[in-house]
């Protein structure tokens, strides 16, 4: 049995991340980074499996009946925004920072978890099985990402989802409702009375979304947050519109079910409300779970996360944790510090070295 040293894992993880940055992997277009991940794992003697662009593997001595931990992060990226001053696919190291699209979200967490998986892959003395999954389409919550992968992965009992959290433990994560809303009126000439302006009707509902506060507040995630993000109406200056559409981003908590949130919204608004999905639910892990208690004993801070990840699609207790900073995600000239990757690998290994021996 050979266990790689942290130093060699640091080097390999950073070189792998450079290769991933140099390989475009927009959501639904991750074919090439999937091949990079397969080649890397198989070069280390790991047997890989693939569904669409999701890649997964198990530890060498996987034993049915043992509790199983999933290590998951994603290898797709968003499109680079117009503010980039660097080539988004040219991995460049400057002042200890590795620049490139997806370096922080979620390349750093991804390669750190892969390195951690390799550290434990050959060990025969684990009380837990370990499954690693590099998922696709996370940035768009696509049907061929974790939604598909979770049905073919070996059954797992809990999960660590790699996202940039500064290696703090997100023990809860808000869910997401995206609402497409339509206010309807009657059209007419702007110079005459009698028309029922759909914009004015929409404005009443938009003001409700802006000001309403749900009475129940989550202990770990705080209040539900609703934000109107898109509005469209009208065709020309002298025609009263009979239709106004707007989109609302709703960050939900464990204080209400998604169905309850939708009912409250429907009770208070006149517009037609159509949720795009009711699958992106809040997620959490009990505070007495071994991952959490061990992390706290190591001095790792816990918090509730307002941002969404594949954690929302996992049917088990899950912890979001990884190197990097969420504030850098989707920004121009995205980067991650090399020291963050190194610290991430070391912290993951220390945490799991303690947890995976708990029977």
Q: Per CATH, what is the topology of the largest domain?
A: Aminopeptidase
Number of separate domains: 2
- CATH level 1 name of the largest domain: Alpha Beta
Can you summarize the main beta sheet? 6 strands, mixed
Helical amount: 25-40%
The CATH architecture of the largest domain: 3-Layer(aba) Sandwich
- Give the overall pLDDT as a whole number: 95
Please explain how this structure is put together.
The protein is of the alpha+beta class and 359 residues long. It folds into 2 domains: 6-173 and 283-355, Zn peptidases (Aminopeptidase), CATH 3.40.630.10; 175-275, Alpha-Beta Plaits. 29% of the residues lie in helices and 24% in strands. It has helices at 6-21, 31-43, 103-121, 146-149, 198-211, 258-268, 290-297, 338-355, and strands at residues 49-51, 54-58, 68-74, 92-94, 97-99, 129-135, 158-161, 169-173, 175-184, 188-189, 225-233, 239-240, 243-252, 272-275, 283-284, 302-305, 318-320, 335-337. It has a 6-stranded mixed beta sheet with strand order 1-2-6-3-7-17.
Annotation keywords:
2 domains, 24% strand, Aminopeptidase, 18 strands, four-stranded antiparallel β-sheet, 8 helices, alpha+beta, 359 residues, six-stranded mixed β-sheet, elongated, Alpha-Beta Plaits
